[in-house]
Amino acid sequence: MAGKYTIQLDFEACKACGYCRIVCRKHVYGQGSGFNKKGYRAFSALKADSCTGCLRCFYVCPDFCLEVIKLDGQAAI
Ligand code: SF4
Ligand code: SF4
User: Which of 40, 43, 52, 56 could cysteine-pair with 23, CB 3.0–4.6 Å?
Assistant: First the structure.
């Protein structure tokens, strides 16, 4: 349900592939303005409030950068 989840994204591990943005039906992800130490313009959960906890982003991220967290503090998976 919207507004009950938040996203933790590992900025330094992100390789900016954009898969999270492609699979998210709620348009949560966008590319940030900063570059990480590897030189990638890492993604960011810009609209985490819209997350429904579907976990599509979690499963698609090839670099294990993402955690979907219920706002009660429990990981969604
Ligand atoms: S869990 Fe689903 S709705 Fe939430 S950010 Fe990931 S893909 Fe989008
Ligand atoms: S899928 Fe993972 S590595 Fe790719 S842009 Fe999203 S967070 Fe970064």
Answer: 56
Give ligand 1 pocket residues (Cβ under 6 A). Answer: 5, 7, 23-24, 26, 28, 51-57, 68
Q: List, for residues 13-68, the tens digit of each pLDDT value.
A: 999 999 999 999 999 999 999 999 999 999 999 999 999 999 999 999 999 999 99
Residues 68, 9 contacting (CB under 8 angstroms): no
Q: Which of 40, 35, 46, 38 is nearest to 9 (CA)?
A: 46
Distance between Cα 47 and ligand 1 center (Å): 10
Specify the pTM: 0.90
Nearest CA to ligand 1 atom 7: 24
For each of the domains in the chain, give its residue range(s) and CATH number, in order of start.
5-67 (3.30.70.20)
